[in-house]
Amino acid sequence: MTQEPTSLLPVWARATTRRPKTTRRHPLHGAHAAAMEEEGDNHRPASSSSASGGFLSGFCAAALRRKPISAHAIHAASGEGLVRQLGVFELVLLGIGASIGAGIFVVTGTVARDAGPGVTISFVLAGAACVLNALCYAELASRFPAVVGGAYLYTYAAFNELTAFLVFTQLMLDYHIGAASIARSLASYFVQFLELIPFLKGHIPTWIGHGEEFFGGVVSVNILAPVLLIILTGILCYGVKESSAVNTFMTTLKIVIVIVVVFAGVFEVDVSNWSPFMPNGFKSVVTGATVVFFAYVGFDAVANSAEEAKKPQRDLPIGILGSLMACVLLYVAVCLVITGMVPYTLLGEDAPLAEAFAAKGLKFVTILISIGAVAGLTTTLLVGLYVQSRLYLGLGRDGLLPSVFAKVHPMRHTPLHSQIWVGCVAAVLAGLFNVHMLSHILSVGTLTGYSVVSACVITLRWNDKTTTRHSLGSMSIRQEGVLCLVIIALCGFIAGLCYRFSYATAFMIIALFVAVAAGLAIQFRQVYVDPPGFSCPGVPIVPMVSVFFNMLLFAQLHEEAWYRFVILSLLAVGVYAGYGQYHAVPSSSDHPAVAYHGLPSEAP
């Protein structure tokens, strides 16, 4: 057994001698990708300089590493990776399954109590904002179609290693708490469904599905939630084909139920209930849009299936955009029906859609809604667990997490250890704690990921090697562009604070003016190249608007969500400094950083 190295330097800087580069480098996707790889090498200092620089210089050098990725990278060990089994239909249903849960039967009516029938416009506005993010995800999914990792991967390629790790930690906390919360909701809905059977009504103990609190509410025992998580984790471990079949069935059932509910409600619509359409003004509609924005979250799950899609370069953009547009249509249809059936002032808070149908004497529809809610929560939970395991797989392969997360079962072709880990974390949280109380600190990771992915689209379009423009001061043209992106994000956050706390409109106008100035600098000071595959239209304007709006929404979150962002970021930096920087897989020709299944040839 060899002795472990004791140096505090990253693994790529420990060697005292360098082997001549004799291996042939894979061609990168486009001229800018080649430039990206060359710049990534420049961030890697020589061994002697890293040794003399000490811990801080080694940390900075490691944190600034970028990941050069070839879309045509070949898995080093054939038969030990993920398998391409998902077609475009499965990808679309994957996105719908992740996005539409029980909320379609609840949040539509809840927001309508404030926005009135104008909640329809709220969903349209929120859907339009999500389309901006979806276009950015679609371009990057098409640009890196052979690699798993989603937002983490794109950040690693566009910015640096530390930023990518920060994005991962913010996303993962959302996923872990969200999965536990959904599991408890699913258990509660499942018990309510069972109580429709007369002899079970009122005889199911609260600790089975609803949760029973102990020690003053510190512990809330729920037995059914972990059981459901174990079942879904087992399905995901068995194989992506089997888990995709379950998601396809449940999502199809959910869509059919929503369509039946809409058609049943159409005949009960009274158009007079739509007047006035915006009783509380347009501001309430905009406020409603900031709330329902998160009802569309989930389309990004499609990007994490890149290594399991049959024709990823073509199908991933279709899956991302197709699932989002389907969700917009379903949400708008439900909004029109629920606000047309009952005056918005009479809508309930807990189950507005079910109560509306019960008031019309259509109690059989309420049963369908209960079934649809169970199906919706099941698919949301299933896809959420699926995405988590793929993110852990990506970080395990890159060395930022222990290598156990990088292992793929040779027969089942699933990341078994990663899948079991995320299932166990969710089961413990769901079984012992009332994680619903933490719902106000969620969505931080989602908005962080969306903002960074939008910025990645811009930076990966830059052609640093062909620009003839002079940089300002000591900053390079690239650093100047990154600074402008940060300014746009800060201006979006400030504008959001002004809107939230009703500050003087002048402050919001100033923030908007500064953001526009930074956007003009990005537009005219950078040289852009067209990417391979799907191309997001209107770059850099569309991604910049996306970043601005995402940060405006970030300002609408609970104050504790901001504290969570700062605290978790500091903890993530500590974990990276103590572990990640020393174990990250180096990106060089001697040590290929990408070891994935190759991209299948696709017909033009």
UniProtKB/TrEMBL annotation:
Basic residues compositional bias, start-end: 16-29
Domain Cationic amino acid transporter C-terminal: 534-583
Keywords: Membrane, Transmembrane, Transmembrane helix
Topology class, membrane: Multi-pass membrane protein
Cellular-component GO terms for this entry: membrane
Subcellular location: Membrane
InterPro entries: AA/rel_permease1 (IPR002293), CAT_C (IPR029485)
Transmembrane segment boundaries: 91-112, 119-140, 146-168, 214-238, 245-266, 286-306, 318-344, 364-387, 416-435, 481-497, 503-522, 534-555, 561-579
GO MF annotation terms: amino acid transmembrane transporter activity
A Pfam family assignment: AA_permease_C
Segments of this protein annotated with the region Disordered: 1-29
Family membership noted in the UniProt record: Belongs to the amino acid-polyamine-organocation (APC) superfamily. Cationic amino acid transporter (CAT) (TC 2.A.3.3) family.
Protein name in UniProt: Cationic amino acid transporter C-terminal domain-containing protein
Highest classification ranks of the organism: Eukaryota, Viridiplantae, Streptophyta, Embryophyta, Tracheophyta
